[in-house]
Design goal:
Elements (H helix, E strand, L loop, with lengths): L1 H5 L4 H5 L12 H9 L4 H10 L5 H26 L6 H25 L10 H34 L9 H24 L19 H31 L6 H34 L11 H19 L4 H13 L21 H8 L16
Helix pairs in contact: 5-6, 5-11, 5-12, 6-7, 6-11, 7-8, 7-9, 9-10, 10-11
Length: about 375
């Protein structure tokens, strides 16, 4: 009750109306932020005044998101323009690139609609702003899981992605987006803390703590699933070292280590903040006031994914150079028609994908480098 009084008596009028009728209440965000941040209205006004300019952190994040957009756009163009990349693995990589591109775009929009502009929004606009970022970031995480599943199947099963089995790939991609949209859309549907102030998140003041805990649980399960899948891949590679050359086996192990290391490094701090947010208030967990830094760091994963998943393909690197050449970035006086020269050879990833699409024997023998 003391916190409600700090919010200058705005708690009672808010709870008198139905939840959905509050979606266009322009005073609601002020009162909920004052409550969640443990501020008086006067303190909140000071914060709003101080946030009218972009901070150094915001500028850094905008630059990072611009890089994310450009490099993932480059991946999408490379996959679309070269028919050699029209295979299961590269479609998954393209899906990951699209989700990361959307994550970068959503985060830039979030930055320019945050700060003092947050308090110019009505709740439905706030839900769209945050929900879009959640959908994009969730899609990126689910895409990582889809790639882990595909890679595991690729080295343990046969004839998975033949011409008559591509529906499996598109179903997996479709499930990734449907699940992400549902996950990010739950608050605007009704799983929020409007009319229930004690349940409000300190980091995202219109979100329910129970929803935050649910999201953390889902993402933690995804992380655990990815770890299990890659551990299985690691064990399979180790068990087949006598039949595979040392270099490909170590290349696979190195890729797995990079994937797991970067994913955990980027997402674990954000998961920790969200877990703290679901269990304590900002007055007892001061680090919650720095949550923006941790979410910005998690976004770094979207910038690193193209490096991990595509630049380890020799042909993809060549295609990047051709795209940049066509854009005039790396032309250096060379004839423009050279940009359109088709690739002459296949990388280990493309070679293994095409070679074993219709194979009827296990592919672990000579495809340990399909990463």
């Amino acid at each position: 009750m003391n916190l409600c009084r700090k919010a200058v008596g705005l708690c009672h009028p808010v709870t008198m109306k139905s939840k959905y009728s509050q979606y266009y209440n322009r005073t609601l965000i002020h009162s909920y932020y004052a409550f969640a941040k443990n501020m008086t209205t006067h303190d909140l006004e000071k914060v709003i005044e101080n946030k009218k300019q972009l901070t150094t952190l915001h500028i850094v994040i905008v630059v990072l998101c611009t890089i994310i957009i450009l490099e993932n756009l480059l991946v999408l163009i490379a996959v679309c323009r070269n028919k050699k990349f029209h295979s299961a693995m590269f479609f998954f990589i393209g899906n990951l690139a699209f989700s990361d591109l959307l994550a970068g775009s959503a985060y830039i929009a979030n930055i320019f609609l945050s700060g003092s502009r947050t308090f110019e929004l009505v709740p439905v606009q706030w839900f769209i702003r945050e929900g879009t970022a959640f959908i994009a970031l969730a899609a990126s995480v689910f895409s990582l899981l889809a790639i882990a599943i595909e890679r595991y199947i690729a080295i343990t099963k046969v004839k998975v992605y033949g011409s008559n089995k591509t529906c499996r790939m598109f179903l997996l991609i479709g499930a990734c987006w449907v699940t992400s949209i549902l996950l990010g859309g739950l608050p605007i549907i009704g799983w929020n803390c409007i009319n229930n102030l004690p349940e409000c998140s300190a980091v995202l003041p219109l979100y329910s703590k129970k929803y935050i805990l649910f999201v953390v649980t889902i993402f933690s399960l995804i992380l655990l699933s990815i770890v299990i899948l890659y551990v299985r891949i690691y064990l399979i590679v180790r068990s087949s070292r006598q039949e595979a050359t040392n270099a490909p086996a170590y290349a696979l192990l190195k890729t797995v280590t990079i994937v797991l290391g970067v994913f955990i490094m980027c997402w674990l701090p954000a998961f920790t903040i969200l877990l703290l947010d679901s269990s304590c208030g900002i007055q007892s967990c001061k680090i919650l006031s720095k949550a923006e830094m941790f979410f910005g760091f998690a976004t770094l994963n979207s910038a690193l994914n193209p490096v991990i998943y595509t630049l380890r393909s020799k042909d993809m690197r060549k295609e990047f150079l051709r795209v940049l050449c066509c854009w005039g970035v790396l032309q250096s006086g060379r004839p423009a028609e050279r940009c359109l020269v088709p690739l002459k050879s296949s990388s280990s990833l493309e070679h293994c994908t095409n070679k074993h699409e219709h194979q009827t024997t296990p592919i672990m023998q000579d495809c340990t480098t399909c990463v």
